[in-house]
Every structure is written in C-alpha cells, then in structure tokens.
Amino acid sequence: MSGFEQEKKASHASGRPVPVVDERPPDAAVAVGAPEAYPRRSTLVGRLKVGNRDVQRILINIAVILIIGTFVQVHIGYFFLHRNLTGLIVNIAVVAMIACPEALVMVSGMIDVSVAGTVVLSGVVAGLLSVHGVSLWLSFSVAILIGAGVGLVNSALILGFGIPSMIATIATLYVTQGIANILTNGLPIAGTPANFPTVGTAQVFGGQIPIQVLYVTGILLLFIAIQRYTNLGRYAIATGSNRRGAFLTGVPVRRTVTLCFLLTGATAGWGGVVYASRIGNPVPVVDQDVLFQVIVACVVGGTALSGGRGLVVGAFTGALLIAVVNDALDLLGIAVFWQYIALGILLVLAVGADTVVRSVRRSGSGRRRFVMPDVGQTS
Amino acid sequence: MSDAQSAGSTSGARDPTGCPVLEAREITKYFGSVAALSDADFALKKGEVHAIVGDNGAGKSTLLKIIAGAYSPDSGELLIKGEPVVISSPHAAQALGVVTVFQDLALVDDLDAAANLFLGRELYFPPPLSWLGIMNKKAMRKKAALEMGRLKVNLGPVDQMVGSMSGGQRQAVAVARAVAFGSDVIIMDEPTAALGVRETAAVLDLVRNLNEAGHSIVMVSHSLPDVFAVAHRITILRHGRTVGVMRAEDTTLEEMLKLMTGAIEGAQA
C-alpha cells in the first residue's frame, strides 16, 4: 500500500480527513442527525433580519405614505379624510389593478409594456359593442377576453419567436393602439348606453365606497393568493431567477410565462373596461399615466427588473405611493407639471436607494462569505 | 463521523458484486469531426462510489452527459441493470432511477431550500384545491426538513433562501433534491469544484452518507485527492478512451497521474 493510501486510511480512522474548527456561534448549531429537530422555519426576527428586501421595501413604502399623509394633514388639515382617500384610490385604481399581475410578469424575468394599449383597445371595444346594442356584461366580457388575447399574443411572440419581452410588448402596444384608432376612426365613442358608466363610477355600501375600491381589493387579494399559494407564483420566481435551471428541474417555463402574460392581459382588459366606463365615452388614446405608472409601481414596490424578486403587495404599495404623491402635490396646490418631476424623482430614489443598500450590504456581509458552513458535519 | 460510518465507507461497500446497475459500452461521440469519446467503457456496480477521472479534454464530462441523458451517443450502448436503454433526456434518466447533479446545480437562488427541493414536483392540497395549483407548503417544509436530516446536512432552517447559502450548502440542497425522490444512481459532476477545504470535506462526507444510505454514485472530478477520499473504483479516461479501471485501494496517486497522461498503459480491475 502506498504512502498516500496509508494517509487516507489514517484520516478515515481519525474520523474525517480535515481537522475541523467550529467557527459558528453556539446558537447556530443545530442538532444534526436528529431529523425531528430539524428547523423548518426561521424565527420571525430572523426572517426580517436576513433581509427580505421585498418586505423591507413594502414597510418603507407604507412609512413614506404615512409621512407624506401626515405632512399634508398637518399643513392644510386635510388628507386623512374618507373622501380624499377613496378619491385617491379611484385615481390610481386602473394602474393598481394592472400592477398586480405585472409584478408577476416582472418576477418571471419579463416585462409587459403593452398594458396601456390593451386598456385602450378593450375600452374601445366595450364601448363599441355596447353602442351597437350588445348587452353590457357581454361587451365587458369580450373586452376582458381581448385583453387575454393580447397577453397570449405577447407570450407567443416572446416564446415562439424569441423576441425580448420589452420589444414584443412595445410592438403590441402600438398595434393595439392602432386597432383601437381604426375601429373608432380616432374619435371618442358617443352614444354609450346610460348604464355604461355604472361599472366604473358606482358607489357601494350606501354610497360610501366607490366600487373601484372593491375592484382593486379583489384583484389585489387574488394575485397575492396566486403568488403566495399557487405553483404559478413559485414557477414565476424560478423562471425569472434561473430560467435554464428551472427548465432542467421540470418547471413548465413556457406555461408559466404564458399564464403571467395572459393574466396581465386579462386584467388590463378589465382595467380598460373600468377606465372607459369611468370616462363614459371611450377614447382611442393611450393614457400616458397608465403606460408608465404600472411599471413604476412595480419597481417602486421592490420588483427587480432582472426577475426573481418582487411581491404583488409591494407593487400595490408602489401604486399607492404614486397616488399619494400626486394627491399631496394636488392638495398643496403645486402645479400638475411638478407631479411628473416628482414621479421621476420617486423612481430614481426607489431604484437608487435599493442599489446603494444592496452594495453596502454586500460589502458589509463579505465576512459571511468566508465563514465555512457545516454541511454534512456528522460528529 | 462515527466509527461505524467510516468503517462502512472504507470496507463495507468496497467490494460490491453482481451485475452493474449502470453500464456504458463502447460509447463514441463526435463533436463535428472531433471524437470526444471513442469506444469508452464504464460500469457502475451496485453500492459503489465510482469516480471518472481524466485530464482536460479526456472526455469525462461528455461521458457523464451521455449517461445523464443530456447528450445522445453516436454509437455504443447504455444498460441499466443489464437492460439496454435509450436515455433521451435528463428526465428520462430520472425515470430510470438515474439522477444527475450538474455542476451549476440548477438551483433557484430566489427560492428557499424547501422550495428548491420540491421544484417541479410540488406537493398540493387534495382536489379541488390542487386543480388551482394550490401548494401544501407546510408539508413540503416538513418533508424537506426530514430529508435534510436524513442526509445529515446542516443548512439551517429550510425556509432560508438558497442564494444566501455557501457553495457546500448549495451542493447539499442539489444533492438532497436528487435523492429525495428515490434515485438509485446519483451522478455528480465536479461536486467539489470551487469549494474551500472545509466545504470540500463536508461534500465528501455527504457522498459517503449517500453511499451508506444505499445509493450508487458516479463522480466526475478533477481532484484526485477527493477521488481517493471517497471512491471505491476509478475509471481513467484519456483521449476519449477508457485506459484503466482501478480499485482505489490498489492504486496510487502517482500511478493514476501516469495513466491519465499516458506514461503507462492501464489495467482493468
């Protein structure tokens, strides 16, 4: 037997080939070899501390909303009022609803910028159908289906032709806008039935709550549930985080991407219905605010453009923050032009702060990288 | 490691008998006009840790990918438990009880260990909830914790993000995923590449634990000391040919290097 062999035997006899120095703090040690004692969940504090960036971002957004609200309340004595708060949500309702599935799309590593076009097209279609005597519910359903169809076209372009999602959805943004204009000759639709605006403007609970608040709540809860409890939410993360790895592991990547775009399209279709109904006479013009605020809401809400990270509820707080900033500037009597500047600054702050925090944390946690783990330690 | 375990890894499974669980006969694979493998042979016996070594370009990762189902051979034959098979994809290989832990591990950094373990094979609540794709996350965390305990690996809580784990821990998650669903044969591609000394030791322990749990293991590695630390037998490839199959205890590092570089001709064990 060679010297090396003897050495090897010796190391086996002594238990393990490499001397082990346990560098971990004692509380990090877990009873190994006792499966029933294996920890299934981190502690609540641990979960927050280990930097769930998404959750932190949501808390920050809520804090900023409260701070702005308090500031305006103190300054002009008017913010935390039922009328202001509901009005604020009505203003952002379409954006907030679409931002929920858009967050899923972005988590899956894609982006859908076509939603503003879908809103216009489906709104116009709903208007046209109802003008021609089709029942309101049917025309609204068709509008939602058209939105879903746009979503399917988007995913077909991306998956079938390998076109980057940004480009594919810019294309469908133009095409849907074009179709809406062709259908209407570029003019607002006149003569919608008298009950056409009901869907977007009704008040419920004894006229206390605008119905849009219900829509937003419903869509928000639906997509929180989808993200949190269904395989789609998990597959979206896997697809956005490591598409090839997810595919090799058996994640139905194509179905995941298709479903995300389908849900976004359908929600945008519904958003178009609400939008058109609120205006009363659908206009074939893309709303600039919808165009960008959906993406801004997601990003401000902590959704990573690179995919893999982001929460639906985060995107919702992002949308809420946009609404609060706009509302505050309104209430403070600042000209509407400044709202655009404020939105730009908000976006830069959100993304900039995130980058700074991450780079600080990375350099700060360099220490952690060199602490050896205790995989397979059995003695 | 306990005495019983080290005894098991050095002698217990060291002399396995019977027909090979996995065999590759006269495998040839061309890339263009370059023969990555020409008539390479490989046989994995039940219960052994079998390393495939060779210099860069010797064809070891090509051979691994062929038995893993990622490549199909131009000629030659694959047999599982003596039966000829065609392995058309890594999934087909899994169905045959052969699972591969690739070097990049195919883990999702933004999901936790339990989610990675069950990725693509989630547990669901009973119908009708399962029709909506509603997962039973609690059951998955519970089973993941059991599995990690069985492998004797220490990852910390199974709801920790894989992205925040070290290389050795990630390897453990990938291995746990590979074995959690009842695979006989585990193929590991460079399991200790880019790992530190202590993590390497941990991964080698993991290999021994898996072997003791009854899994047959194919391990492709650059690192001869790691190979000697765990392997029962070693197949040496050079220029796409099998130049030797050695029992680890009958050979030396020096002999191995000579075989790999062609300084001496090989033998069959």
Question: What labels would you give this structure?
Answer:
heterodimer; A: 379 residues; mainly alpha; ABC transporter involved in vitamin B12 uptake, BtuC; two-stranded antiparallel sheet; 1% strand; disordered N terminus; B: 269 residues; alpha/beta; Rossmann fold; six-stranded mixed sheet; four-stranded antiparallel sheet; 9 helices; 10 strands; globular
Commentary on this structure:
The complex is a heterodimer of chains A (379) and B (269). With 379 residues, chain A is mainly alpha-helical. Chain A is built from 16 helices and 2 strands. Chain A has helices at residues 3-13, 44-49, 53-76, 82-107, 115-131, 136-161, 165-184, 198-201, 211-229, 231-241, 243-249, 253-279, 288-300, 312-331, 337-364, 366-369, and strands spanning 203-204, 209-210. A two-stranded antiparallel sheet of chain A has the order 1-2. The model of chain A is unreliable at 1-36 and 364-379 (pLDDT under 50). Chain B has 269 residues and is α/β, with parallel strands linked by helices. Chain B has a domain at 3-97 and 183-261: P-loop containing nucleotide triphosphate hydrolases (Rossmann fold, 3-Layer(aba) Sandwich), CATH 3.40.50.300. Chain B contains 9 helices and 10 strands. In chain B, helix 1 crosses helix 7 and helix 6 (167-179) packs parallel to helix 7. The longest helix of chain B has 16 residues, at 197-212. Mean pLDDT of chain B is 81; it is low at 1-16. The chains are: A mainly alpha (379), B alpha/beta (269).
